[in-house]
Amino acid sequence: MTTPRDWLWLLLLAAMWGASFLFMRVAVPVLGPFPLIALRLGVATLALLPLLGWLPGGFALWRQHWRAIAVVGVFLSALPFCLIAWATLTLPAGVASVLNATTPLMTALWAMPLAGEAMTRQRAAGLALGLAGVLVLTLGRGAAFGLDSALPVLAMLAATACYGWSGHMAKRWLPGLPPLVTATGSLASGAILLLPLALWTWPSQMPTATVWGAVLLLALACTAFAYVIFYRLIEKLGAIRASSVTYLVPVFGVLWGALWLGEAVSAAMLAGGVLILAGVLLLGWQRRG
């Protein structure tokens, strides 16, 4: 059962993850996807390691489950974060956050092969609505539909597919593990994986203070603190209900983009977002039925 406290945590998480698109939009054109995400994961890991040291048996639990934690970390942080960072090179923060709302849809779709659930008519209708929303959003960006405009959208969908799969795997492989252990271990695994790519693509010019500020906020607020909350919600509510935070992320993503970056809120964004959320709700309602 979702309590009022759970909803407050979901709201705070949505606000922070909505802001992550703003910070990526500011930093990724300067740093590039691999350096930005390596910094995001590395700084977040450094922030969490002292807390893990204070947790009785924290490092021992990490060593015991390091393989599962590493796999979940790659697909819940390193890979999707890089895909999203690359997409935000061209996608506005608000558009990226709306596409991120397909995460619960992907989570529910993964429940079919992972939990043996069937593709019913209602599920098919939910999927169709979600895909229609993505199409409306893509065509409504004002650019001709082609490979250049489709690839960032496909990258966002690949990222949410990673989120959906890894949410189920975290619940299956790491039941009862303290959220701090899972968060720290998964972020550290992703940072280590990305380090060679980050060094290889490191920018030649020193970033500005604004960019470094965006990196720190992205790492500390939107990653370290947010992931502890998210893993705790997965453990308490399950993958699908925890992923419902993305119902609210587009609201904050569009809001922060409009307030801080001057991004326009178009009719296509609103229509696409409504269709995506309608599809997600239809698919999720069938699952709970």
TrEMBL record:
InterPro entries to which the protein is assigned, alphabetical: AA-Vitamin_Transporters, EamA_dom, EmrE-like
Places the protein is found: Membrane
Main location group: membrane
Entries under SUPFAM superfamilies matching the protein: Multidrug resistance efflux transporter EmrE (SSF103481)
Record bears the keyword Transmembrane helix: yes
Pfam families the UniProt entry points to: EamA
UniProt key word Secreted: no
Keyword entries, A-Z: Membrane, Transmembrane, Transmembrane helix
Chain ranges of the EamA domain: 8-138, 153-283
UniProt membrane topology term: Multi-pass membrane protein
Protein name according to UniProt: DMT family transporter
Organism: Vogesella margarita
Domain of life: Bacteria
Transmembrane segments: 7-28, 34-56, 68-87, 93-112, 124-144, 150-168, 180-203, 209-230, 242-261, 267-285
